[in-house]
Known about the structure:
The protein is an alpha/beta fold. It has 8 helices and 9 strands. It has helices at residues 12-15, 17-22, 27-35, 57-60, 79-90, 106-112, 206-219, 240-244, and strands spanning 2-8, 41-47, 65-69, 95-98, 119-130, 144-154, 164-171, 176-185, 188-193. Helix 5 (79-90) crosses helix 6 (106-112). The model has no long low-confidence stretch (mean pLDDT 94).
Amino acid sequence: MIKVVVWNEFRHEKTKDSVKAIYPDGLHAVIKGFLDKEEDMEVTLAALDDPDQGLPDEVLENTDVLIWWGHMAHAEVDDALVSKIQKRVYEGKMGFVPLHSGHHSKPFRKIIGTNGNLSWGRNQKEIMWTLMPAHEIAAGIPDHFLIEEEELYSEPFYIPQPDELVFGAWFEDGHIMRAGACFYRGGGKVFYFQPGHETCKSFYNPYVQRIITNAVRWAAPNKESYEIPSGCVHVKTKTVDEFNA
Length: 245
């Protein structure tokens, strides 16, 4: 089983009627709802106002993939928690999938190493283009699909060059966006995906759901063990001190 934690700031849904009308139990509950249909996933929810900001050590250390949505309270996320998240990703123990305004989250910026700034504008129609149709995250996705309403996010997007750019977006006003980007950091995997504004219904879109589901499987750490065949020699490496002795 892939153990997934869907972390949500969970503030807009409590303070804005327009958001609560779309996501009455929180947008993270909608994500959990479609991931729960997958037989190989065990999904739990976490929120900023939960004890230990939803990610005490016993939860974080038992997480294979952490999905992250934040917006209005990035600064409230504890720096010590951010360092723990980065460490688990770098050690290859956990995958990280930030969504939408998660581009400005502390964990995403610390993991990839830049500020994550971008340009944005009014809600409008968006066409998502599949740039790497053979990629695991693009499985079951057509060459393009329409999102009826989404917040404009556009270039310049201040991220490192993605290791794999799976999706690109075109918006009604003519702007473009690197909308689905993969990064390899240490032994771990990160997939940033752009749709998911709190006043839009993007998380109900079946293609968006499929992409997030695929991303969980892609980002999950490799837990396969490998037995060295008899006759093979495992070479013990030396430390610098041993070489200099």
